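$ ./design --mode recover --in tokens.txt
reading tokens...
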């Protein structure tokens, strides 16, 4: 890892890589990925827990992320400094432009092993940085294949390195003095350890969520139920935007519970490469056992299982719960598994309070036919994004992405990440004490 960082650092000091060439390399990478989409989808499905259809969807998103990264070359502009409008300006002029921070350490998780890598590498590279990638040890092959594709597209070998595993590798990366910025996606506990070890380095972190959806009394119950099922069980719930808690007005509760239960029972749990599969396995049997333990805890505390609640090896059936006490882990923490809890409410203010009553603040959904209610609820939810008449499980790759509280620091989303991974650098010219027009010498208005 130290050799990899030193290699990238040396290249940054010696070799120029013009912005035009950076843009062209990322544009070519998007074309190459489109040509190799079937191969990449196969790698993702083989080593991760995604079904083949979910893997194909991730490849399509990654192509978009690369295109957005190339287009983000337009973010690398500055503006003139207002010396003429300042008492301290004197006879000076100046401007600022955006410059790379240096070396970006990219540490990525297993659940989106291609697109989340692209969300770090694309903005870092278009910004002129070097990158050292540490992909998840559970899904390393996708990240390595992606790095190879970027090299094939024209990214210089000195601008990117990837180290997968080995004792102390992550610590060596985050503590290296030549690393200027750490971009991490994972859990809050790991983020705390990174921050403690990294010291004063700049850190961007996306740390997951415990996402709520509020279904108001005037909502379209059928649309809400369908969206809840889709948002709770995609990628077997291993999605930071997954719907985990649903607060439903009491007048709609039984209706939506019945529809969500029916929709959940209709899902097919099975092998990843079977195109009839809706829900694949979790990333490991240990993770399936953890989810099982949390659900059993909820049942012991009085929770009711309406669908699912059974584990088979690394598979955990999509599960619908009610009557779960608020201090249970399936309510309090991020489940990161195929489990959703439905909770009735009477007053919308109570639902908002409970939705906010978590250490996380990533995204939330609100179902209502009233614009006034939608705007009022959205304003009071302490999260990074509120989705009206949809669940929390909505993201496009150009939007600013991140949350409040333990859900992270800074924002991803290509254009926003480019700004995070570059810094404004000012250039100031002192023209001297003589007014500028006097330097024209013999020139006069008449001449």
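writing sequence...
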């Amino acid at each position: 890892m130290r050799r990899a960082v030193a290699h990238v650092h040396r290249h940054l000091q010696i070799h120029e890589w013009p912005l035009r060439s950076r843009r062209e390399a990322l544009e070519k990478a998007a074309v190459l990925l489109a040509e190799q989409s079937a191969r990449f989808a196969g790698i993702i499905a083989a080593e991760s827990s995604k079904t083949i259809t979910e893997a194909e969807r991730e490849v399509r998103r990654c192509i978009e992320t690369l295109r957005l990264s190339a287009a983000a070359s337009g973010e690398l502009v500055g503006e003139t400094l207002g010396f003429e409008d300042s008492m301290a300006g004197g006879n000076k002029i100046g401007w600022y432009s955006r410059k790379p921070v240096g070396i970006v350490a990219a540490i990525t998780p297993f659940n989106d092993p291609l697109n989340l890598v692209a969300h770090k590498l694309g903005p870092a590279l278009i910004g002129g940085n070097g990158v050292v990638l540490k992909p998840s040890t559970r899904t390393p092959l996708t990240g390595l294949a992606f790095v190879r594709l970027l090299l094939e597209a024209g990214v210089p070998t000195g601008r990117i390195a990837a180290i997968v595993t080995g004792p102390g590798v992550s610590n060596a990366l985050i503590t290296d003095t030549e690393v200027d910025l750490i971009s991490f996606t994972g859990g809050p506990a790991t983020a705390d350890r990174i921050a403690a070890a990294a010291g004063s380095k700049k850190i961007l972190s996306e740390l997951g969520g415990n996402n709520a959806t509020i279904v108001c009394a005037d909502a379209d119950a059928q649309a809400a139920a369908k969206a809840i099922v889709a948002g709770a069980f995609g990628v077997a719930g291993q999605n930071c935007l997954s719907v985990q808690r649903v607060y439903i007005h009491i007048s709609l509760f039984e209706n939506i519970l019945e529809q969500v239960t029916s929709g959940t029972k209709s899902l097919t749990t099975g092998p990843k490469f079977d195109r009839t599969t809706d829900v694949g396995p979790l990333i490991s049997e240990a993770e399936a056992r953890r989810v099982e333990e949390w659900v059993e805890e909820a049942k012991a505390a009085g929770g009711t299982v309406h669908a699912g609640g059974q584990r088979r090896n690394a598979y955990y059936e999509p599960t619908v719960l009610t009557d779960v006490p608020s201090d249970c882990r399936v309510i309090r923490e991020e489940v990161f598994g195929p489990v959703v809890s439905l909770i009735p409410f009477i007053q919308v203010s109570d639902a908002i309070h409970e939705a906010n009553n978590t250490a996380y603040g990533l995204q939330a959904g609100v179902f209502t036919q009233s614009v006034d209610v939608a705007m009022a609820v959205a304003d009071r939810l302490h999260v990074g994004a509120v989705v009206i008449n949809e669940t929390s499980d909505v993201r496009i790759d150009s939007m600013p992405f991140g949350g409040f509280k333990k859900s992270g620091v800074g924002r991803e989303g290509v254009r926003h990440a480019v700004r995070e991974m570059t810094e404004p650098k000012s250039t100031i010219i002192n023209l001297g004490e003589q007014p500028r027009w006097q330097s024209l010498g013999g020139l006069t208005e008449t001449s």
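exit 0
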